[in-house]
Amino acid sequence: MERKLTSTEAASAAAIQRAIDQLAGGGRLVLPAMELELDRGLHLRSGVEVVGQGKATVLRKGPGRIYPLSGYHNYGMCDVPLHSVAGLEVGMTVSVHDGSSHGGFYETFATITWIDGDWVGLDHGIEADYAASDAPCLTTIYPLVFGHNIEGAAIRDVWLEGNRADNETHMGGCRGGAVYFYQSRDIEISGIRERDFYGEGLSFQMCREVVVKDCHFDENTGNGLHPGAGITNALFENCHAEGNGKSGFFFCVRANHISVRNCSFKSNESGLSIGTRDCNNLIENCCIEDNRGAGLLIRKTPRPTEVHSCLVRNCRIRNNALESGRGQVEIENDAHDLLFVNNRIAANKERASAGFALGAMVRAIYLEGNSCENCAVDLEGEPGSLVDVPPRIECGYGAASALNFRHLNYPILR
Fold first, then answer.
1. Per DSSP, what are the bridge partners of residue 329?
2. Span 31-72, pLDDT tens digits
3. Which of 222, 300, 319, 414 is 20 to 30 A off residue 266, Cα-Cα?
């Protein structure tokens, strides 16, 4: 089933949400050419594809305000007490946190279900105790588009403006981003051009079978693209991240069997960053340049959580480490079984760095056909970290077996 909304029918986020809900289970919702400020995030449903008109369909995040809680509140409660509820409405999406929980999974992202005096009801329980002494608050900070526990959904051909200047605080990358998915599968994101969000551009957590194509995530305060906890079997193709406050592409904890292909990461804090249990990943035909830190950073992750079994090939890695970092490619302890094949590497002439900078406990690194220009040294580290025979690995999108998904056991909402 396909439904095309007129400008009148798509005059508010609430109206678009009703149209999405009516298609739950299967359907295509086409947005018109328009510019619309969202006072809440758009919640995708299983089987629903939302499609815009490219740059003619612009969704802009509304103001992000801070509403202090009136005191301590405890884990699991489906409500919060505020000093004031002025400007809040049922159906709005909000975040709740205190100073200690802000940015992690203890932050709560929820939808307002009722308002009674200065109490606000939420569609699920808060994720932690929030201490009265630690500035607990509710905020109107939210993803522009999101999905929780869904499958077979897509968002395509929409321009998203994060409107950072009119938002008083950021949203943590574990619970949100300009585009966000949680415990979902078979998700497609294509033709999205997003910028200026107070947080991550794209974040998804504990998802599988995610395809992201032909997208830009630029000028966000956090990471551009953030495949997060437990992500398995994802493809990023022809995607770009530029001018982000953190990494252009950030592999989070246990982001596995991911392919990053024909992408570019420019003028971020670092180009790509790989860390705890981020294994069996493929990066190929990418351009990584002009980043303030390392072009490709393998973060320090002690055994048994170290990075291993990744392949980087046919990439151009140049003019990175402009302000910090030891190398264009920096591999910290205790990574192993990493392959770098046919990459073109060049350092900045004014701040010379190594082509490859290896930590003391790095091992089984295979280098073949790489070229290094303007580098202080091609290789900084122990020659014993290198191997002459490529380690046998399986990596990338489509290479995961059924055993690789056992950690993703969650309900799907129809």
1. 296, 356
2. 999 999 999 999 999 999 999 999 999 999 999 999 999 999
3. 300
